[in-house]
Amino acid sequence: MKTAFSLLIFIPFLSFAQVNIDFENGELTGWTQSEPEHWAVTSEQPISGNYSLKQVFDRPEAGRDQISFPLQGLSLSSGTTTWLFSVHHTYFPSSANNWVVFLAADRDATAMKPGTGIHAFAAGVNFTGSDDLFKIWYLHDGRTETIITSHFNWQSSAGTLPAAIKISRDASGNWEAAIDTSVTFQHFQIVGTGFSADTVAARYAGISYEYSSSQDRKLWIDDIHINGTFIRDTLPPAINDYRFPDSLSLAIAFSEPVDLSDAFFSMDHDIGEALRFFQPDADSLILYFTKRFSPDTLYHLTLHQVKDLQGNILKDTLKQVSYHLPNYLEIQINEVMADPSPSLGLPEVEYVELYNATNYRIWMDRTVFIFGDKEKILPLFDIPSHGYCILCSATHASLLSKYGKVVAVASMPALSNSGMSLSLLDQGRHLLSHLTYDRSWYHDDYKSEG
Fold first, then answer.
1. Per-residue pLDDT tens over the stretch 295-314
2. What would the mean pLDDT of 159-167 be, rounded to a whole number?
3. 157 membership: H or E segment, kind and range
4. Which of 190, 263, 299, 431 would suit a FRET pair with 218, their CA atoms being 20 to 30 Å apart?
5. How many CB atoms sit inside 10 A of residue 279's CB?
6. Is the peptide bond prior to 342 cis by the omega test (within 30 degrees of 0)?
7. What are phi and psi of 69, to 5 degrees?
8. Number of neighbouring beta carbons within 10 Å of residue 187
């Protein structure tokens, strides 16, 4: 007997289990929507049974809506995982009208879209591009890598009719996708295979639907089944990282989504208890204090009653934190590649390298980089003590990633071959580093080319 939403764990701690969601109870209990009431369980033209999930919001302009549910311990590395679901998209796909099912993701619906820091496996049509082919992608660090490009063209092979999709991944990373467009959904045909050894923290699954101004309310999803190995979570959350956005706040990243309903936080050195906190994501928070932190002081943060979504409590924990503001020349413009062509071994890509000359790990937040007469606000990033960081165009970041930490700069201005002025400013526009390079620095006409 199918249930509306069940996660069955038969053996404590480790088990083979199943998620079954057929929407037949007419409810969306436990789901998270990127915007409230944009999705609903409806009896309007259900794919099967009496109800299906549908995007129902009538938006006057183009938009994107996401929805997700928790997976609670799915382990992709412990065995074969199989996903089965049906889709009905009653408009031909395009770059502006597309759908994606997030098979496994480390973040919920709010991050199930391009350009976020989500780590996920996703399957669908035209999440990137517009060739209408069914694909499976690996999303990580703001990038989208294709695992499977199938031979199944959704417009010509499914059109506006319902289709069932079956996807499997074994513990080694071998993927297989099959699709069935028959009336009974009993005749699956393999449409593609692929391999990716990468994995993700499978905390959520969900759907993302992008539509143009007149094509909303045209996507249905039904009969979601996930078979795999689920590991019961018995470990409390841990602190993965922290940073100081400014002298009155502290941001913390946890190892998993946390429940802060009973939590409170305090700091020594007369800073006291946090005035309030904000949770930008399920696994992070920002604490706000009334007294300012002093640079280069070692503080002790005490966390009380932080727990994960399974109720595992992080016992009162003391975390050492320190706050450092970079001074002039503590972050240095260390190297400039203005003329990378012809290549002498490196990719033919312009870049600027920064060096952290301090004994502190330094976060660069809302930093300004000036290229001649053009300014760019850099994204948030950090540089380890005595470490390096490469700034380059977002379109070339993957080419330089094997050489060290890379910060992708959207629409990065070109570096003049003959020379130009470069400056790095902190968020208060205080100068951190400056140089004006010139072609004459090469002292060699041959070396000045590439």
1. 989 999 999 999 998 889 99
2. 97
3. helix 154-157
4. 190
5. 13
6. yes
7. -140, 155
8. 12
**Coil, helix or strand for 155?**
helix
Residues 6+ apart with CB under 8 A from 275: 288, 289, 290
Alpha-carbon separation of residue 345 from 109, 196, 400 (angstroms): 42, 28, 12
Report the C-alpha gap between 416 and 429 in whole angstroms: 24
pLDDT in tens, 50-107: 999 999 999 999 999 999 999 878 999 999 999 999 999 999 999 999 999 999 999 9
Total residues found in the chain within this entry: 450
- Average confidence (pLDDT) over 18-31: 93
Which structure tokens are listed for 416?
A: 């003049």
Which pairing describes strands 306-308 and 258-259: parallel, antiparallel, or unpaired?
antiparallel
Identity of the amino acid at 320: Q
Region 32-36: mean pLDDT is 95
Tell me if 23 sits within 8 A of 30, measured CB to CB.
no
At residue 1, does pLDDT exceed 60? no
CB 316 within 8 A of CB 268: no
For the residues 24-29, what does the mean pLDDT come to? 93
Please list the residues that pair with 434 across neighbouring strands: 423
Residue range 208-237, pLDDT digits in tens: 999 999 999 999 999 999 999 988 888 899
Residue whose C-alpha is closest to residue 134's, from 117, 121, 112, 153: 153
Work out the burial of residue 36: count CB atoms within 10 Å of its CB; fewer than 13 is exposed, 13-18 middle, 19 or more buried: exposed
Q: Tokens representing 297? A: 């002081």
DSSP letter for each residue of 60-120: SS-EEEEEEEEEEEEEGGGS-EEEEEEEEE-S---SSSEEEEEEEESS-GGG-STTS---E
Instruction: Count Cβ neighbours within 10 Å for each residue of 51-62 and write b for 16 or more, e otherwise.
Output: bbbbbbbebeee
Measured between alpha carbons, how far is residue 296 from residues 49, 244, 361 in Å?
63, 12, 12
Find, among 61, 168, 65, the residue nearest to 112 by Cα.
65
What does the pLDDT average to over 139-160? 94
Class of residue 318 by CB neighbours under 10 A (exposed 0-12, middle 13-18, buried 19+): exposed
Dihedral angle sign, alpha carbons of residues 23, 27, 30, 32: positive
To which H or E segment does residue 258 belong?
Answer: strand 258-259
Q: In this predicted model, what pLDDT tens digit does every residue of 387-427 receive, in sequence order?
A: 999 999 988 888 888 888 999 898 899 999 888 999 999 98
Contacts of 446 (CB under 8 A, 6+ apart): none
